[in-house]
Amino acid sequence: MKKKVGLFYKKNGSFNNAVITIDKSIIEALDISKDSNEIIFTMKDNEIILKKGKIKKDEEKEVKDIHGDVVEYAKNSSINFSKVYKDKDYYVAKLNIPFSIVGTLKISKDNNEVNITSGNGWVKIDRKERIGKVYTLKVNKGGIGKTFLTVQLAHGLAMQGKKVMVLTSDSQNNIIDFTLSEDKQENIELKKGLRSWVMTGKGDIIKLRKNFDFIPLESSVFTQRFLEKLPIFIEHLKREYDYVLIDSIPTMKIDTEFVKCSDKIIIPGFCDIPTLKGIINVIEEAGINKIKGIIINLYRNTVTQKEILNKLANILNETDIVFPVPIKETSIIESLVKKGKTVWESKAKSVIGAQNSLLDVILEM
C-alpha cells in the first residue's frame, strides 16, 4: 500500500516532526496494541523495517533486519495510540519518523508518499519505485486447473510479503470460489470490476488474503477501446503490486492482450495427450523464451501418465523452463478447494508435495 508522511513545522518554519498514520493491517502484522506498543525501528539501504520488541544495550551494534543482515541504523521506538474521543474507546495509531530519515528518504511536502509492505511480524517502509512482474497462466484447453494454480501461486507469493493482484478473463470470477467459503461469498458484490478500472480508473478490489487482491470481471464483451487501454492499466498495476497474475481463458479476445502485457507465461497441464499437444502449441505460439514454468496438476502415477511426463521432461530437458514435480490428485486438496482454502492453509502431510512443487515455481518468479 502507499501512504503519505505528514510533515509538520513550527511557527518559525523549522521542522517539528514527521508522522505516518498506522492502519489495522500494520498493527496486526506487528502484533501490537495500545498497551504493548514497543517496536524496533531499523534502516538499511533506504528501507525502514519495523519489528515488535526492544533492543537491549548489549545488542545495539548487532541488530539485524528481516534478512539477517546487520542494519545501519537502529533505535527503540513505539507506535503512539491517541484517543480520538474522550467518551469513546476509539484510537488512532501513529509512527514518528526521525528527521534524519526524512532527509535520507528525500521526503518533502510535495513528494511524501511511501510504500508499505507487511509480513509475518515485520513491516517495511521504502520509497523505491515498484516495477512488478506480470504472469499469465495459459493453456489452450479448459478445465485444466488454471484458476486453482493461479490462486495457489498468488497466495504463496503473498505469504512471502509480496503484494499480489489477480486478474481474470472469466466473467464467472471463479477465483472467488477457490478463495472464499460459500457464506463469505454472499457478502461479495460484483459491480465495478476490470472494465470500470480500465475505462474510468475506479472500481472494486476484493481483498482475498493479506497482500492478495482480486479485480473481478463484469462482462466477457470487450470493446476495442477497452483492449487499447488495458495495457496502460496493467502498467499502472505494476507500480502498485509486486506481481500481477492473470487467470486466462484462451478463447477470449482479451487473452491476446494479456499475453502481450505479460513478462512470462506459466502453463498448467494434465498428463494426457490433449494437454501435451496444448502445451506444445502454447510454446510454439508464445516462443520458448516467454515460458517461465509448466505445472502438471491432478497427477496419477499410472503407466500412461508416467510416459507422457517423461516425454514432456525430455522436451524441456535443455531449456530454462521450471518443471517441478507434478501435483498429485488428493482428496485433501479437493476438500480445501471446496472450503475456499489454499494449500498453504493446511498442515496435512499429503499437501507438502504440492506446496514444494509450487515453491519451486514461486522461487523462480
UniProtKB/TrEMBL annotation:
It comes from the Bacteria. Gene3D superfamilies: P-loop containing nucleotide triphosphate hydrolases (3.40.50.300). SUPFAM superfamilies: P-loop containing nucleoside triphosphate hydrolases. This is ParA family protein. Residues 133-285 form the AAA domain. The lineage of its organism: Bacteria, Fusobacteriati, Fusobacteriota, Fusobacteriia, Fusobacteriales. It comes from Fusobacterium hominis.
